[in-house]
Amino acid sequence: MITKLLIANRGEIACRIMRTARAMGIATVAAYSDADAKSLHVRSADEAVHIGPSPAAESYLVGAKIIAAAKQTGADAIHPGYGFLSENADFAQAVIDAGLIWVGPKPASIRAMGLKDAAKQLMRSAGVPVTPGYDGSDQSVERLTKEAEAIGYPVLIKAVAGGGGKGMRKVDAPADFAAALESCRREAKASFGNDEVLLEKWITAPRHIEVQVFGDAHGNIVHLFERDCSLQRRHQKVIEEAPAPGMDAATREAICAAAVRAAKAVDYEGAGTIEFIADASEGLHADRIFFMEMNTRLQVEHPVTEAITGVDLVEWQLRVASGEPLPKRQEELTIKGHAIEARLYAEDSEKGFLPSTGRLERLELGGDVRIDTGVSEGDAITPFYDPMIAKLIAHAPTRSGAIARLDAALRRTQVWPVRTNKGFLVRLLADAEVRAGAMTTGLIGARGEALLARPLPNARALSGAARALLAPGEDGDPMLRTLFNFRLNREADSPVTVALNGKPQRFTPDFSGQANTPWWLETREGVLMIVDGDDQIVTLPRHEGSGQASAADGAILAPMPGKVIAVDVAEGEAVTAGQRLIVLEAMKMEHALAAPCDGRVEGLAVRPGAQVEVEAVLAHVVPAGE
């Protein structure tokens, strides 16, 4: 058995692996970058080793540094977690060559499934159904354009390497293909070091169904049933559950058997996931489910499988890597109840889900759910890594019961001043199609603004916040009392105004039944309320001309800290409203900044490769005619 384990990762997955290792009596070593020097995974480990600067390319993605850290601390095994080097066959081989135990599949298996085009070809030969498309070696723009036309629009462009929704673009019309291909290749090259792509037919009512598989060195392979990961935003999973809603026994048997065949085709060892796309236009049927790809690692959403099977997948990984056989046979694995997981991200849903960085001055994750997190109150969310704060996993005898538990936990969750997608998740769980289990991967995009609209607090809630604003003292500061025109020891008979999320909100005070008002907290920014999962700030009304930063004057501001990866215009160039000007990369995602109006570019202040801070002025667009 492994005695000391180095985790070549960070955040919640590093903490989650340490939890199991500790229970098994295995010592743990954390690897950390400059940005993570005081992080939770470092504080949780038995030992910690510094591996470089904050950018992942200079620390977590440098295999030699990881192996040196393991040697330095006397670790006998390396667990890669997910992301970073977890599906890098060369790194896996280097670990083995260094005389260390690699907690993952054999390098040959990673190579076989690491490129989506080769994997699809292998699956065809193994009798696994694959999505119609093109995965050939000719990567010329001309050939890809021709193949897209042959497949028929809409088509999906996918990077052959990597995953996580990066390097993927849906294209609806021939005129958009070239630009989408260029963007997809650039993102794939930056994320995975490989800009090759494949094409797939876009399925109009798609469900994302995946099967957890596990193999050992003794030839045993089992599946641990399926998960539904259809709730996605821009190909990034948001909410996952197990088992898949609407999955009948015959279809489950067919899809799980196909997953086992896929794993056997590459002589698989360890934890892996076979991902399928289902045409759910007429429900789930075995003949309408197609192989997409295999992830040769542990998945972010693995806790829902653990919940319904009672299996600790990390423990299985460590035992299999130590040479032990699988702890259970297929017939010993059963489904118990239903589990659903939400990913709580540090992102501002009202600003296009832009990452939100800063210190977590308030962080309370609670409820009758499992919490997997890599941060605690006082820690910082930095721009260097994925903005996930935590995963909340609810398990109950029924699907409706699991959803209710998750909903309650999200509504209780308190995070400030970092913005989160909490309210978005609450509204998503309340969606009628989600409740019915009839969602597709396009649901979030189809709902659009409906999932972003924050509910207005009622007068009772606003009155409670106003009372806090007027403190100290029963009647508060005289100037504030005059502003609001009411006393707190009696009901007001005329409307008053506060600023709700920076906008005037007029209401008639109501101090009845204060126990029923939402949770609130006094902060430096004002009084923070949580209303149906949404964070809302109540402050004094802002006077006109307060000088709040905006781009109303045509300024193009950086919405977050990041790196400029493309500048599409030149100084003095004429542009049209909506035209892409600059592309910013932050937290491994591209963000295009567009012209707010017709005009010309002035004061272009950046070039590709520049690092910028939040709200830095990158350029101005002078309106036409000025």
Task: Name the features.
626 residues, alpha+beta, Rossmann fold, D-amino Acid Aminotransferase, Chain A, domain 1, Dna Ligase, domain 1, 6 domains, 5-stranded parallel beta sheet, 29% strand
Domain count: the total is 6
Computed Rg: 26 Å
Tell me the number of strands.
Answer: 36
Give the distance, in angstroms, between the N- and C-terminal Cα atoms.
74 Å
Quickly give the CATH architecture of the largest domain.
2-Layer Sandwich
Low-confidence stretches: 472-492, 542-552
Number of helices: 17
How would you describe this structure to a colleague?
This protein has 626 residues and is of the alpha+beta class. The protein has 6 domains: 100 residues, 3-Layer(aba) Sandwich (Rossmann fold), CATH 3.40.50.20; 138 residues, ATP-grasp fold, B domain (D-amino Acid Aminotransferase, Chain A, domain 1, 2-Layer Sandwich), CATH 3.30.470; 70 residues, 2-Layer Sandwich (Dna Ligase, domain 1), CATH 3.30.1490.20; 117 residues, D-amino Acid Aminotransferase, Chain A, domain 1; 81 residues, no CATH class; 69 residues, OB fold (Dihydrolipoamide Acetyltransferase, E2P) (Beta Barrel), CATH 2.40.50. It has 17 helices and 36 strands. The strands form 9 sheets. Strands 14-13-10-11-12-15-22-20 form an 8-stranded antiparallel β-sheet. The termini are far apart.
